[in-house]
Design brief:
By secondary structure, the protein is an alpha+beta fold. It contains 9 helices and 8 strands. Strand 1 and strand 2 form a beta hairpin. The model has no long low-confidence stretch (mean pLDDT 90).
Length: 247
């Protein structure tokens, strides 16, 4: 299993846990709200909203919850969200990028800084870790009745960089620039991804033993439990042993 596929596998595992406590719903609701405020409620003319709705369906979000999120974005009196990113290092030189969507920047930066401090990390300046991560489009698609070779052949011209099948899920990786093209191609084929998003994939990883790796994942979980945090990306090497111990 490649690093990208391991990343997607770990996202699915965390997603399953998040869904039980409705954390994943709150993230998608924020994304829908921001998308509507940014470019309107029509998904046909709002690609960001279209992706968010696809992710909501992939997470089995109830239709009334989805509609309330869209209505919240239309409400001029509703709180406005700001998107912000924080970067830094955890123990053993593990780099992290934390993407947030917040209605209170001071609260968010205070919470993020407190977590870094609690776990002996260091909050850095934005852009300082750009050399470690590449932004990629990642699509997680249930295999269903799709034929591996036919499906790959059909979407290859939409910008496929990597194409893998693991645990009955296809993981399709594109460049950031080809994210929209791939989304459009899948729509034309009538295929709804379980998840589609831009991720920050590490081009260099830090290898640690199991004990230290689990401690790093505990810090990642602490960041992700904050209501303002949408995504946390890191360059810890995801070993098979770590995946097994996260189950």
């Amino acid at each position: 299993m490649s690093g990208h596929n391991k990343w997607s596998t770990i996202k699915r595992k965390k997603g399953a846990a998040d869904a039980k406590r409705s954390k994943i719903f709150s993230k998608i609701i924020k994304e829908i709200t921001v998308a509507v405020k940014e470019s309107g409620e029509d998904p046909d003319s709002n690609p960001r909203l279209r992706v968010a709705i696809a992710n909501a369906k992939g997470a089995s979000m109830p239709k009334d919850t989805l509609q309330r999120a869209i209505n919240k974005g239309k409400d001029k009196d509703a709180a406005s969200f700001t998107e912000t990113t924080y970067e830094g290092y955890l123990a053993n030189g593990v780099a992290v990028v934390i993407e947030c969507t917040t209605d209170n920047i001071q609260r968010t930066v205070s919470n993020v800084r407190a977590i870094f401090n609690k776990f002996s990390g260091n909050l850095g300046t934005n852009g300082s870790l750009s050399f470690i991560f590449d932004r990629k489009g990642i699509f997680t698609i249930p295999k269903g009745d799709l034929d591996h070779d036919e499906f790959e052949l059909e979407i290859i011209d939409a910008g496929v960089e990597e194409f893998e099948l693991e645990d009955d899920f296809f993981t399709v990786t594109t460049s950031m620039e080809d994210f929209g093209s791939m989304m459009k191609k899948l729509e034309e084929m009538g295929i709804e991804p379980e998840n589609a998003e831009l991720q920050r994939l590490p081009n260099d990883t830090v290898k640690l033993d199991l004990d230290h790796s689990l401690k790093i994942m505990k810090v990642i979980d602490t960041f992700e439990e904050d209501d303002d945090v949408q995504n946390v990306f890191h360059n810890l090497e995801i070993s098979d042993e770590l995946l097994e111990n996260m189950e």
